[in-house]
Hints:
This protein is mainly α. 69% of the residues lie in helices and 4% in strands. It contains 47 helices and 7 strands. The strands form 2 sheets. The chain has a 5-stranded parallel beta sheet. Strands 6-7 form a two-stranded antiparallel sheet. The radius of gyration is 31 Å and the shape is globular. The two termini are 52 Å apart. Mean pLDDT is 86; it is low at 1-14 and 796-802.
Amino acid sequence: MIATGVGRELLERDDSLSALSEVLATVRSEATGRLLWVGGEAGVGKTALLRRFCEMQDRPVRILWGACEPLLTPRPLGPFLDVAEDVRGQFGQLVADAARPHKVAAALLAELRGRRPTVLVLEDLHWADEATLDVLTLLAGRIGSAPALALASYRDDELDRVPALRLVLGELGRWPTRVKLEPLSVIAVAALADERGVDGADLHVRTGGNPFFVTEVLAAGGERLPETVRDAVRARSARLSPPARKLLEALAVVPGDVEPWLLRALGGELVDRLEECLGSGMLRESPTTIGFRHELARLAVEEAISADRRITLNAVALGALASRDDPDFARAAHHAEAAGDADGVLLWAPRAAERAAAAGAHREAAAQYERALRFTHERSTAGRGALLERRAEECALSAQIDEAISAQREAVICHRRCGDALREGDALRLLSRLLFTAHRFREGETAGLAAVQLLERLEAGHELAIAYCNIAQRRANDERLPEATAWAGRALELAQRLDDTEALVHALCDIGFLEAVAGEQRGRAKLESALQLAQQRGLEAHAARAFTSLVAAALRLRRFGEGDQYLEAGLQYCDERGLDTWRLYLLACRALLEVHRGRWDDAADAAELVMHDAHSVRSARSWALTALGLIRARRGDPEAATALEEAWRLAESSEELHLIGPNGAARAELSWLAGDHSGVVEATDEPLALAVDRGVPWIAGEMAYWRWRAGLRDQLPSQLVAEPYRLSIEGHWERAAELWCEIGCPYEEALALADADDEGVLRQAYDQLQALGARPAAAIVARRLRERGARGLPRGPRRTTRDNPAGLTARELEVLALVSDGLRNAEIARRLVVAEKTVDKHVSAILRKLDVQTRGEAAAQAVRRGLT
């Protein structure tokens, strides 16, 4: 077969097979697991490589194979359903039940830790659902404890359409390297083409060396490749007998592999033509399934089927799936839609959505609800309203806020048309919450108060308690303690009367946050109680909010140890459950925490993770941009103003001090560093007024501090100015520096020291700022020293940079060490918990500073200069 010839040539040319064999040998000898990517464009031969590699293994090696399918909405845990066919027991049951990713990953690891070495193939991850990617992420971090080689294949030419997979590729870095399959060379194509009397050079130009295209053209008798792959596939299928073509069409309506029972249902008496279809080279056969060799071929055949026959075949597939004892809801929904069966879609799509949501695949769940909604135009308005609300919830959990608002707004209209005041009021409350998240505060306030007014006319119940909580949360975010307390009090009283846990948790978070940021221990206790209750009752979004509130309160009070206590646990909790919105909030909190601690590389890395996620909500983006802008300002980067102004545009309409305060302080500092005192006043006017009005000493104190540095002394009550800032303003620089040191803020400590008149202390401040890389502030201190007659001040980069002759930063030295260890950028990104683009920038800077062209040369320089 030509396809086999192409596959063999590719394996021999690329040495990929040898690379996989070497890794497996290491796994077997050291009993230490590895996970490798196998990437390449569609049709390049990834499956051929993996199948050939598996065929080569001797009996002791167990082979487990799972593949993702090109369903419009992927099946949750799709490839692991295939693996579960061979692995029964607890793992099989968990996958069948669509259990949480962390449970599935744990069961899979337990299975892989058996005595036999295992090769686990996870194919076509560009079609993976969120739950599958979550399991893969967890597996990557722990596979070292199992004698297994996991091979994950994906199309690298489609990553722009698959942001979730791109994020996983960027964040996970424990894998040694990627196996990259390239298109065939001119020589390889010519060698194959010569056998059929085809011009190899021309064929290579027309196909780009893609093995699939080459195979299809040569299988069609060497004809010139038509404009689309579709035409090539149709030309090839036309050589089959009419019954064989009908069987091929029947198979083409099923994305992915076809099981024998489904094949019999679709093909009927045509099944006896299967051998002819297999002989065409368009299909591949495994011990348990039949499938197209390439998805592109399947699509080409499917599109050629007449509309009537395509509907009939999909209806047959739906009937066969529905008759199973444990039907696959996602596949059934796919075929119901393709068959135009509205009843079927409305039966299976919501079930598929529920299963996806239960597995943490919220984006897939939202898509399934959207599928159902396409078939409810002539249906019950009440039923459509319920579907809209479910879609809105899943969109919100997966950070698709605009889509969530659109769905929720329509749900309000549906309930109103039905005359269901209770559902209308609750839908208004949900709409209000979503509008608040999108910083559309006036609209959110109107909807929230309308919900309360409507629900108060009805018998008091859960909906009213949550509506009170919604307004209390808004007042808490505004830091209006009396109003928030009043609304939360209404909610607490009603929640206790109704024994309503969700309303109780919500109210505890509302009032607990305000008390916590005021430094009251009872506030932290309320948040911890809310967190515990939410986790016990499975209220995942509320638990994530409690984690975020605990971290944000610690950030406000500069209690970094408390922040660390909840930050990592919160990130893990959100990662495992697909709570993207809250995960991004926590990453933004991490960025600001690390800025205060002087860990500016770590802060920038966390902020860039937020910025690179297209679904980041406004608040998280504002925090991340503020962190980036502040770092750039302190390092003298001219791009600082751009980031801070963008952050201000996101924050200014909110009147929320947790957004306006940090941004105002950062813009004030940027102005002060530039000697622009009027800019300091302009940046702090609004935040200071709000902080004074709402009695927030840390933000009021920070605003007053920068205004004092600009020569403006505000007459504020001492209790409204946090102690470290008050001490500096009052001239007690030494005690202020001590407090900043105790808190763990080295930059602020250095600025306090810089207020001294003693040359020795000023030199200490200068050295500390240089060590941090704070060039503008160091220059200000240097001027003060020179005005006092000081000589011999060191110039140039910070101390950590001067300590190495290449002028590398501390983070660049860290990256260089990992490069020298042979790690690729994705692996380094995972190790350092940063975005892969960030590592790309560091590596480029390293190569430039070392004046080398390759990573190998950089590693050699590192050894020669003693840099690692």
